[in-house]
Task: structure prediction
Amino acid sequence: MSLPIHPILQQSFALIDREIGEHSFNTSEYAIVRRAIHSTADFEFAQLIRFSEGAIESAIAALRRRVPIVTDVGMVKQGVAGMVAQTFDNPLIAAVEQASVALPGKTRTETGLLKCWQEFPEAIYAIGNAPTALLALCAELPSATIQPALVIGAPVGFISVVESKAVLEKTPVPQIRIEGRKGGSPITAAIMNALLLLAWEAEKC
Result:
């Protein structure tokens, strides 16, 4: 059973389908790409998004188990809260809200993310703003006995952004990544919402 889609969203998806034309994405990948484009009105994301093998399947299985979703910032958390409430009601945590002060040499988001990592290593990590948080997470993964179900690596900006995504690419963890400087909270939330919908459809079919 699918959740209802607003007529304006249906019309927007139809326009995206016509404009994007032929593509090589599978059905699940395209559901994510289409929501990413809808949230940004930027078709370049169809060329920038990367899926590791089995990443979507890992995320769907984890969401159905109601694993926590850890976002780097509050804007990503707010962007997915409505869909989380309509589907599996997973625990939803913003890393930056877990640290009132930053550890020496670290940002608050990085500090909060490392705290979340200690408590929820199996979570889905959705990073759309803070490359420092993505780098901190990637540094923990090689020695970890429990791996995240998925890492969404989509920080936006100029400092350490491309570098953090390059580190993620070399890390053998299920991942959905936005290449280059583009990314941000809206597209990260869109990717997460698309995954929640795919998991909900899998649960109800």
